[in-house]
Amino acid sequence: MNPATALATVLVDELLRCGMTDAVLAPGSRSAPLALALHAAEEAGRVRLHVRIDERSASFLGLGMAKRSGRPVALVCTSGTAAANFHPAVVEAHESGVPLIVVTADRPPELRDTGANQTIDQVKLYGTAARWSTEVGVPENRPGMVAYWRSLVSRAWGLAQAPVPGPVHLNAAFREPLIPDGDESWCEPLDGDATGAWTKVRAATPGSVLHVPPTRRGVLVVGDGAVNVKRYVAAASMAGWPVLSEPNGNARYGDHALTSHHFLLGIPEFVERHRPEVVVTLGKPGLSRPLLSLLRRAEEHIVLAPDLAHWPDPVRSATQVAPEIEIPVVSGDDAWLKSWRSADLAAAAAVDAVLDGVAEVSEPRLARDLVAAMPGGSLLFTAASMPIRDLDQVMRPRRGIRIMASRGASGIDGLVSTSIGAALAHSGRSYALLGDLAFLHDQNGLVIGPHDRRPDLAIVVVNNQGGGIFSLLPQAALAGPFERVFGTPHRVDLEAVAAAHGVPYRRLEAAAELPKAMAGEGLRIVEARTDRDANAVLHAEMRKAAHAAVRDLFA
User: Fold this and answer.
1) Is the pLDDT of residue 532 over 70?
2) CATH superfamily, region 3-173
3) What percent of the chain has pLDDT over 70?
4) pTM for the whole thing?
5) N or C: lower Cβ tally within 10 Å for the chain?
6) Which pLDDT band holds residue 205 (cuts at 50, 70, 90)?
7) Would you say domain 210-334 falls under CATH 3.40.50.720?
């Protein structure tokens, strides 16, 4: 099966599974895969297809049907001005709150801006009139496409109805061939969920709560930006679930919180024995690939999303999305939780042994010890690259602190200024853990005028002379260009930078000296020099030790 046919087949099928009963089609060439998929669905009695030769008339026909029924109607057209002729109806749908799924076929990127026939800029064509607009992307014959396509359509269907009905826009680029080629094979099953939509969106209504299926084999995952954390951590604890919280999820406390889930979920034998029946996620997880793999394999993945206009689903595995959920208390054997906790303790002890066996300053030990040494009521702002990942792998559960990171876009820009702003708004002691590139990227944040408030903030800078995270990625194998375009050493004297801004400076000489280096008041800089290659070796040793300890436990 060619990619264009596969995408169109899945897209139409998922719309039907979501509940679409009517679709309006205007004819065209580039939209041929969608037209044929809709025709096949009509022949099978699954949809009422309406064909109009005038796109403007077609769009207003769909508008009328959706306005009367209250159910989204799909509008489908080819590329170019055909899509532009939908615009008046899209504007009316936006202003009057009518749900529409606007699907515009498009040329692939290599044909854009080349003078290719019937090609215009269709990206976000309808501007603010669309509740949501996205590029579907050129379809490819590779695993993972089906989950992406179905999740995308489910999201579009949900956003067209909640929180306020309106139009959404999917721009689908197709390469030729545009008609079926007679080959029905594809690299993965094209089927969806037999029970309906890939992701079911539970709209907020007064008193509506999604009741999580009762089970002892559940897991609570907490990521960045989570809300109502204490409530759901308490509920998960009552249900006997382990809590897998990223540091900035601020749920890594109590007896159910784990330290080493990153390592546990990288062990195939452990994963096979600990498959959850339900995973509930709060906030946006994304630090650990093994954790994301857990979400991908979950039988039931429920996402708590107070704002149904946006919800995090990085691996396209959400089965249900709701603004409020209830985790029921289930009595019974606590072997599930005990198994997770015993494995976590074994892995954490093995990792601690590796870290404590190195007297020199190391990045993961610095992260672990910094959190442990912070007084109660403290704030820690951490960079979104390696520092937050080090915390995720080694931070022991503790109460009484707040951890923040700029994980919205996960960039390194503005982190000195952001940490200073957070410290000025915080009522207790404040700390920041930044890499050298993040620190240098925003060193102007240290410029504070004589009449402005200065924060009580210790900025701990891990200086490994470049982009340390790349030493842990496949790019590290590219010995020739690595240092030049990934490592990017800078040779900047951080003590001189501190002196230029009149900021007290201290260098951390040994791991055990951290509490002394952290001491003080006001804005100050602590530099911790490390070696990128040694750090990569240390991370490999941590992983090896943790995996060995867990395998021995279950041998």
Assistant:
1) yes
2) Thiamin diphosphate (ThDP)-binding fold, Pyr/PP domains (3.40.50.970)
3) 99
4) 0.87
5) C
6) low
7) no
Helix, strand, coil content of the chain in percent (nearest 5): 40, 15, 40
Tokens of 164: 């306020």
Q: What angle do CA 51, 66, 94 make, to 5 degrees?
A: 110
Give the residue ranges of DSSP H helices in 384-435. 386-394, 415-425
What is the secondary structure of 301-348 as a DSSP string? Answer: EEEE-SSTT----TTS--SEEES-EE-----S--HHHHHHHHHHHHHH
**Domains 210-334 and 361-529 belong to one CATH topology:** yes
Q: In the β-sheet with 73-77, what is the strand arrangement from edge to edge?
A: 48-51, 22-25, 73-77, 100-106, 167-173, 132-135
Tokens representing residue 510 in the block = 């040994």
Cβ atoms of 548 and 350 within 8 Å: the answer is yes
Instruction: Give dist(CA 33, CA 104) in Å, integer.
Output: 12
Return the number of other C-beta atoms located less than 10 Å from residue 326's C-beta.
12
What are 88-144's pLDDT values in tens digits?
999 989 998 999 999 999 999 988 888 888 888 899 999 999 999 999 999 999 999
The structural domains of the chain, with segments of one domain joined by +, span 3-173, 210-334, 361-529
Answer CATH for 361-529 from 3.40.50.970, 3.40.50.1370, 3.40.50.1000, 1.10.579.10: 3.40.50.970
Q: Kindly give the interhelix angle for 386-394 and 335-356, rounded to the nearest 10 degrees.
A: 120
For residue 292, what are the contacts with CB-CB under 8 A and spacing of at least 6?
285, 286, 314, 315
User: Measured between alpha carbons, how far is 295 from 276 in angstroms, rounded to an integer?
Assistant: 10
CA 129/CA 392 separation, integer angstroms: 40
